[in-house]
Every structure is written in structure tokens, then in C-alpha cells.
UniProtKB/TrEMBL annotation:
<feature type="domain" description="BPL/LPL catalytic">
    <location>
        <begin position="1"/>
        <end position="183"/>
    </location>
</feature>
<keyword id="KW-0547">Nucleotide-binding</keyword>
<keyword id="KW-0238">DNA-binding</keyword>
<comment type="function">
    <text>Acts both as a biotin--[acetyl-CoA-carboxylase] ligase and a repressor.</text>
</comment>
<comment type="similarity">
    <text>Belongs to the biotin--protein ligase family.</text>
</comment>
<keyword id="KW-0067">ATP-binding</keyword>
<keyword id="KW-0805">Transcription regulation</keyword>
<feature type="binding site">
    <location>
        <position position="37"/>
    </location>
    <ligand>
        <name>biotin</name>
    </ligand>
</feature>
<feature type="binding site">
    <location>
        <begin position="41"/>
        <end position="43"/>
    </location>
    <ligand>
        <name>biotin</name>
    </ligand>
</feature>
<keyword id="KW-0804">Transcription</keyword>
<feature type="binding site">
    <location>
        <position position="108"/>
    </location>
    <ligand>
        <name>biotin</name>
    </ligand>
</feature>
<keyword id="KW-0092">Biotin</keyword>
<keyword id="KW-0436">Ligase</keyword>
<keyword id="KW-0678">Repressor</keyword>
<protein>
    <recommendedName>
        <fullName>Bifunctional ligase/repressor BirA</fullName>
        <ecNumber>6.3.4.15</ecNumber>
    </recommendedName>
</protein>
<dbReference type="GO" id="GO:0004077">
    <property type="term" value="F:biotin--[biotin carboxyl-carrier protein] ligase activity"/>
</dbReference>
<feature type="binding site">
    <location>
        <begin position="13"/>
        <end position="15"/>
    </location>
    <ligand>
        <name>biotin</name>
    </ligand>
</feature>
Length: 248
């Protein structure tokens, strides 16, 4: 991963740039890094504020074996890889808020947006784009008033931040190890994910179209779904994207 690396000053979104380049002869592992994004995208149609030189905005093109179901695992594994890279460079290990927000001091350090493209005829997986945004040196004003209370940068947390190139290199190495293992070492990465996951053992709020519901997060199952127990004792397996979950 990252042997072919495209570095841009500014782009709309590094995920978009990977998709524009993802024609069939492009091998997997292509990585795009940008200094700023003018249209950085987050999950659920949100935007991802991406000020110049303050964060690492990186996307990689992967062509994993497997089906649609394996894609959420790839995203979960990527969150573990982000924790590895941060720990290696900064000496602190963040945690993961299910399904894939990377959390430091109770606030969001990194978000991951995974998008996929299917073959028109067979609906087989053509490729996956994993887009990762890590906050390096933002201050509150860079996040804006809405995001600042829930976001954190490495500079805010530790008083210093690695350079973007250093973080990109550590992260690409971590993603490379992950991809070499995928999907064979599923159990190993599942255990690593479980040990980083902060959500299990807490009360969460399930946000559905029909309204909010309280539940207790009991476990992460073998497909990386969150197992929750409702107050009436019934259990539900929640797949990422199905409902949104509040609370760490
Ligand atoms: C989220 O937390 O909602 C996901 C945020 C993902 C942000 C990254 S930054 C690099 C890549 N390009 C994008 O437009 N989004 C992802």
C-alpha cells in the first residue's frame, strides 16, 4: 500500500481523486495524500473540515478478496492501523468508538470513510476506497464551533504533532501490514479491534428513523457488528451504517 503515492496541494476530496484514478489497470495500493481538501467528506453525508496543512488527508485504493460484508471489516481493521501509527509516532494509543472513529481523550482524532464500487453486471466488488483523516495540528478555531467540542488534534492532546509526511509513512506501513493479512488473519484483527474498542461495556443510544432507544453495548461479534442489549433483555446485532450509535 502506498508504493504508488500521489501528493497534491489541494483537492476536493482524496476519496474522489482515488475514484477518478481507479481505472482497471491501476493496481491496488494507490494512495493519494492532500495538503487541504475543499470538499472533504465524512460519513452520513457530513462534510469533513480539512484546513491546509493541519491534518493528514489520505485515501487508498484496495481490491480485496471477498464480498460486501468484508468491507466493514476492512474499515474496522483500518481504525486499528490508525491506532498503531499514532502509538508508534506519539507513544499513546487511542481507542476506537464503534464502528470506526478513532478517539483520544474522549474526542475524535480521526475519521474513516470507506466507499466501494461494484461491477455493474455481477455486483462483485470492483474496488474499495478507504479515506482517513487524522487531526494533527488543528486548534479549536480550525474545527469551527460545532466540531471543536467533539474533536481533538494530536497537538491539542500532546502539545506536539508529528509532521504530515511522518504520519503518512507510518500509516501507509500499518495499512500495508493490514492488507497483507486481509482477510486471512480475521481473528487476529478482530481481537485487536476488540481490545481497542471503547464502546463495549457502555450505555449507547441507538438513533433510528423511528426515534432514539437506549441500549447496552455488550460485544463486537465476529462480523464486527455491535451486539446491544435493550432494557427488556432482547439483543440486537447492529451492522455499521444500519443505525447510528451515540455514546462512546
Ligand atoms: C467521518 O468521520 O465521518 C469520516 C471522515 C473521513 C475523512 C477522510 S479525509 C480523507 C478522505 N477524503 C474525504 O473526503 N474523506 C476522507
Amino acid at each position: 500500500v502506498g508504493r504508488e503515492l500521489v501528493c497534491l496541494d489541494t483537492v476536493d476530496s482524496t476519496n474522489n481523486e482515488v475514484k477518478r484514478r481507479a481505472v482497471d489497470q491501476i493496481p491496488d495500493g494507490l494512495a493519494v495524500v492532500a495538503g487541504a481538501q475543499t470538499g472533504g467528506r465524512g460519513r452520513r453525508g457530513r462534510s469533513f473540515v480539512s484546513p491546509e496543512g493541519k491534518g493528514l488527508y489520505l485515501s487508498v485504493l484496495l481490491r480485496p478478496e471477498g464480498t460486501l460484508e468484508t468491507v466493514s471489516a476492512l474499515t474496522a481493521w483500518s481504525a486499528v492501523a490508525v491506532c498503531d501509527a499514532v502509538e508508534q509516532l506519539c507513544g499513546v494509543r487511542p481507542g476506537i468508538k464503534w464502528p470506526n472513529d478513532v478517539i483520544l481523550d474522549g474526542r475524535k482524532l480521526c475519521g474513516i470513510l470507506t466507499e466501494l464500487e461494484l461491477e455493474a453486471e455481477t455486483a462483485a466488488l470492483r474496488y474499495v476506497v478507504v479515506g482517513i483523516g487524522i487531526n494533527l495540528s488543528q486548534e479549536a478555531a480550525d474545527f469551527g464551533p460545532e466540531v471543536a467540542p467533539v474533536a481533538i488534534s494530536l497537538a491539542q492532546a500532546l502539545g506536539r504533532a508529528p509532521r504530515r509526511a511522518e504520519m503518512a509513512s507510518a500509516l501507509l506501513d500499518a495499512l500495508d501490514r493490514l492488507y497483507a493479512d486481509f482477510p486471512g488473519a480475521w481473528q487476529h484483527w478482530l481481537e485487536r479491534y476488540r481490545s481497542d474498542c471503547l464502546t463495549v461495556g457502555r450505555q449507547v443510544r441507538l438513533l433510528r428513523a423511528s426515534g432514539e432507544e437506549e441500549a447496552f453495548a455488550e460485544a463486537v461479534d465476529d462480523d464486527f457488528a455491535l451486539v446491544v442489549r435493550r432494557p427488556d433483555g432482547t439483543r440486537e446485532h447492529i451492522c455499521s451504517g444500519e443505525v447510528s450509535v451515540r455514546g462512546l
